[in-house]
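Issue 218. Parser rejects a valid record. Input:
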Amino acid sequence: MKKHLLSIDDLNAQEVIEILDTAFQLANISDGATKKLPTLRGRTVVNLFFEDSTRTRISFESAAKRLSADVINFNAKGSSVSKGESLKDTAQTLQAMGADAVVIRHNASGAAQRLADSGWISASVINAGDGTHEHPTQALLDAYTIREKFPEFKSDFSGLHVAIVGDILHSRVARSNVLLLTKLGAKVTLVSPPTLMPVGISAWPVEISYDLDEVIGAVDVLMVLRLQSERMAASYFPTEREYSRGYGLDKLRLDSLKKSAIVMHPGPMIRGLEISAESADSHRSVVLNQVANGVLVRMAVLYQLLGGAALGGTSAQIDKSGDSREVSA
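Output the parser choked on:
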């Protein structure tokens, strides 16, 4: 039984599909009379956020509450952390409070792993984004959204072409998506200026392009990333206008997509820079679907870690009465 979710590498392809299938069952329940499950009643989930977040924090909070867990939101700003308290002391405080799961977002890569391996806390640890390293639940919800729009790729993404365009260098979303999508068999192309490609990118299981117009007509999914200017200590391109001209999704590029292609964005979107308002609001955009699916996928992760099946070895069966049980895989 895996106790933590720190990286997509913690999961094999079958385990990914089990999480997505559990989220699908939870979606069916949410569409019915039962909006809330008793699965995690008596459990405590702590959102431990050292970085600002809206979507991810609220999504995890909503997911935990729909499973009847108690939720504590811990914001580093205005807390003892801002007075110099260490991660160790914060973790031990949460341990004393009886936390069963800690959802951590931190600006340092490896912070979630450090917390999980430290022995400071016995709770399950879920990585909600650590520096420029990974954001596994974002990749899971993205895969769920892709499968929702392309049901023919339910358990195998072979034949699906996904392009991820933008600030690859600083994007934990890109890293987690590359790991997950290629694990499921998808073809992934990364598109950005050379200055925004990570060192060692040639070793990744992806294709690389510096020309969005050369790639865009062949993809099924276009995932647009935000420019993370807060992580940029130097100039990576001449001007934002120049970047937008070369790598932004405008109407002309939107119209050059396949008829069946969809547009994704992990948010927050900078309209007019990496994506035009028309593209963000078009019928191709599944941005709001991603937000809604984020709650379902995070419910599935919490369910399997704390209340249902493990992330490996068994599969969760959820009936519409709101009860849950486990069966052998």
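Fixed in the parser; the record now loads. The radius of gyration is 20 Å.
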